[in-house]
Write a structure and sequence with these properties.
Elements: H1 14-28, H2 33-57, H3 60-66, H4 70-90, H5 101-112, H6 118-126, H7 131-157, H8 166-196, H9 198-223, H10 231-258, H11 263-273, H12 278-289, H13 293-319, H14 322-329
Helix pairs in contact: 1-9, 2-8, 2-9, 3-7, 4-5, 4-7, 4-10, 4-11, 5-7, 5-13, 6-7, 6-11, 6-13, 7-11, 8-12, 9-12, 10-11, 10-13, 12-13
Length: 350
């Protein structure tokens, strides 16, 4: 398998720059009145189409093949949907010293979001880890997260002003789950088309996310909620997220070692189990939080860039570790995922 390369210098993810530019546009020219209604309708359609594409892209065969390495996938899911939320709940003690209540809700929502797919694959490949396992682990996390993230939000945020309600549950089913299942059902017929046009469709889904961000932040600007955020609060949020990422990177690496995983599997577990998906989280936040989505997604956007920068450095260091040569020469562990789908070498943002 062709190894991915990473620039020697550490750039800001270009897509994050586009996201920040979209936030700036919403701050300067927010959608109001009729324009806001149009943007909201377009955003709703974009979210549904986005999850339709997610469903159509997920290979059922790859998912079934990946079940052979179930211990690794259970470990990643436990990190994503158990350990992360527990740490998020523990951060409640930082309110109001470091975090305001709205920023804490956004931080807690961050911990409920599924793992990434593309960046987990990219960094695992750079670090010479078990790439097929990373593909399956990210796919399982995204699939399960469509159902589990809203349920966790209902349990942990529902009684705390998080914006989750019965109406939100209906929106989740109609805007996320139904399009996703439709994509899975139609994959047999539209799969080849999606494969042939994956670059164009990739631009479409990224554009959809930008539209969601613009709509959410426009609502926030119109409602004046940005006056609630100060520079000190943002600095506190960044500090908390840095600690959260460091704890998860250490737990996934040394915890996987304690569980007896090979080095290649530990690399996959570390990168799939320590990250959160911006692509999945932004649309979900738009549905769950409505008018309060702008503050809710701010912690996720910051964490996304932070995880890319830190994991890029770690991946390059893992690739030059002498132990990786031994891991490459060793036979694969029993039950390891055997599918070897092609790895995209594009931007590892997920």
């Amino acid at each position: 398998m062709k190894r991915l390369s990473w620039p020697r210098w550490m750039p800001i993810d270009p897509y994050v720059l586009l996201l920040l530019g979209t936030v700036g546009l919403a701050a300067l020219l927010p959608a109001r009145d009729t324009a806001a209604d149009v943007a909201s309708g377009a955003s709703t359609a974009a979210i549904a189409f986005l999850f339709f594409l997610y469903g159509a892209r997920l290979s059922t065969r790859e998912a079934v093949d990946g079940l052979r390495h179930w211990r690794l996938h259970v470990t990643v899911l436990a990190c994503t949907f158990v350990i992360f939320p527990v740490l998020g709940l523990a951060a409640r003690g930082l309110v109001p010293v470091l975090l305001s209540q709205p920023l804490y809700q956004g931080l807690l929502f961050l911990t409920l979001v599924p793992s990434t797919i593309q960046s987990s694959i990219a960094f695992t490949s750079i670090a010479r880890g078990n790439v097929p396992a990373a593909i399956c682990a990210g796919s399982f996390s995204s699939l399960i997260g469509i159902v589990l993230t809203p349920l966790l939000a209902a349990a942990l945020l529902g009684g705390d002003g998080g914006g989750f309600s019965a109406d939100s549950a209906v929106k989740i089913v109609l805007q996320l789950l139904v399009p996703f299942l439709a994509g899975q059902l139609l994959r047999r017929w539209i799969g080849p088309f999606i494969t042939r046009h994956k670059k164009i469709l990739g631009l479409v889904d990224r554009g959809s996310i930008l539209l969601v961000v613009y709509t959410a932040f426009s609502e926030g600007v119109v409602r004046g909620i940005w006056h609630q955020v100060s520079a000190a609060r943002l600095a506190g949020l960044l500090a908390v997220e840095a600690v959260l990422l460091a704890v998860m990177l250490l737990l996934t690496w040394y915890g996987a070692k304690a569980l007896g995983f090979r080095r290649g599997d530990r690399i996959a577990i570390q990168f799939a189990g320590s990250k959160k998906s911006l692509a999945s989280g932004l649309p979900m936040a738009s549905v769950l939080f409505g008018a309060h989505a702008s503050l809710a997604v701010l912690p996720l956007m910051l964490f996304h860039q932070m995880q890319l920068m830190v994991c890029a450095v770690i991946a390059k260091r893992r690739a030059h570790d002498p132990q990786t040569q031994e891991a490459d020469a060793a036979p694969p562990a029993a039950g390891a995922a055997r599918s070897r789908p092609a790895v995209r070498t594009g931007n590892p943002a997920g």
